[in-house]
Structures are given as C-alpha cells and as structure tokens.
Amino acid sequence: MIRLHHVPGSRSMRVLWLLEEMGLPYELKTWSLTDGSLRGGDFLAMSPAGRVPALEIDGRSIFESGAIVEYLTEREGRLAPAPGSPDRADFLEWVHFAETQANIIQALNIHHIFLRPVEARSVPLMKLDTKRLAAATKALERHLAGRETLLDQFSAADCMLGFNIDATFRFLRREQFPALAAYAARAQARPAYQRAEAAGGGSLFSQDFYELPDG
Ligand SMILES: N[C@@H](CCC(=O)N[C@@H](CS)C(=O)NCC(=O)O)C(=O)O
Question: Are residues 60 and 136 in the same domain?
C-alpha cells in the first residue's frame, strides 16, 4: 500500500504527479494547511516539521518531496538517470533547484495570501523575494530555451518543478518567460498530470496575478 499525505495545490502535487506517471496504485489522505491538523501527533510522527508531502510506502514513511522523488525513481528504476550515470548530477541539480525556487514562492505566498491583516506584511521583503524569484526563474528560462524537458527526456525532475510554475506566474508575468510558459503547457497536457489534477488538484490562489503593493 502506498499512501500519499497531500494538500491540493501544495508540494505534494509533485509526488501525486510522479505516482501517476509511474502508474503506481496509491491512496490519498488529504489535509488542510490552515486547520492545525498538520501539527497533530499523528502527522508529526510521519513528517516532523508538519509539512506535506509525506509518503507511506514499503512499511515506513518518508518526508521531503525531493527525498520521496529520489526514493521512488530508485525503487522503480525509471524516470531518472541511474545513480552513477553521466547525467545523474543534472537530475539531482534540478530536483533540488525546485526547492530553491519553491522556498521563495512560499515566502511570497505567506505575504500575499496568508499573513493578515495586510498591514503586517513587509513590502520591502515582498519586493526582495519577487526579485529573487525572477533571478531563479530567469535561470530556468535560459536552461529551457530550445529544450522540451529539464533533461534530454522527461524525468521526475520535471514533476518536482512542475508544481512551482503555476505559482511563479502568479507573481511574475508569464510573457517574460516564453520558454517556461511553453514547457508548462507541455507538462500540463500530459495525461498523468491531468489524472493527478483530477485526483487531487486544487489551488491556493484566488487571483490570477498578485501585484506588489505600493510602498
Ligand atoms: N522541503 C519540503 C517543504 C515542504 C513544505 O513546506 N510543504 C508545505 C506545503 S507546500 C507545508 O506543508 N506547509 C505547512 C506549514 O508550513 O505549516 C518538501 O519539499 O517537502
């Protein structure tokens, strides 16, 4: 039995999409980011910082999306270059780059969506994080120009990154990143991505775009 602990629209979408790409049977347990349940003892036993995703598999549980993605690709022997192969380092770089970008997105989510009253937000920090997101996203745009996928073929690194892109375009204008926008459209057209969306999709966002406040 594989059970994914999941919040729609969160980083657990990475694992949900990968499970669908791999065709592995799984159960979904859906949690809320805002009702305090992720800080309960049952969940903390699986994910000590109270974060999703957590994956129950092979008689244990695993936290950290990157660790789960590496575990699944090694277990199944696909959707990643094998350890020791020449492009393994490229795979690992992009798996972990996804968290570099996601951590900036998370800071912007907190400011734009979760932190209330709005006066509690730090506009200088929001501006700084928007610039940091632009720098990371420009790096991605340069890499993707003329490429279909992060590596020479579709891999679990694309599942890691896929989650970030919708969020990125809530804070940065899509038109400024044409290679990334085309990459996102290809990802979203994949049948496994659509199955993942149908099984556990959702969004934290209520606006298409979040402007920086004045100040
Ligand atoms: N590095 C971790 C980050 C996990 C993480 O922060 N997940 C968010 C959702 S995207 C979460 O569970 N947040 C709950 C909280 O901060 O209370 C991973 O990639 O799994």
Answer: no
- Residues 200-208 have a mean pLDDT of 95
Per residue in 94-142, pLDDT (tens digit) is 999 999 999 999 999 999 999 999 999 999 999 999 999 999 999 999 9
- d(CA 140, ligand 1 centre) in Å: 22
CA of 11 to the centre of ligand 1 (A): 7
CATH number for position 23: 3.40.30.10
Say whether both 108 and 34 belong to one domain: no
CB of 110 sitting under 6 A from ligand 1: no
In a domain, 155, yes or no: yes
- Residue 177 CA, ligand 1 centroid: distance in Å: 26
Asked whether residue 99 is assigned to any structural domain, the reply reads yes
pLDDT digits (tens, 9 = 90+) for 28-50: 999 999 999 999 999 999 999 99
Ligand 1 pocket member 38 (CB < 6 A): yes
Q: What is the pLDDT of residues 181-190, one digit of tens each?
A: 999 999 999 9
Q: In what order do the strands lie in the sheet with 27-30?
A: 27-30, 3-6, 54-57, 60-63
What domain range is 160 assigned to? 88-190
Query: What is the C-alpha to C-alpha distance for residues 66 and 150, in angstroms, rounded to an integer?
Result: 16
* CB 5 less than 6 A from any atom of ligand 1: no
Measure Cα distances from 135 to 101, 104, 106, 154 in Å: 9, 11, 16, 24
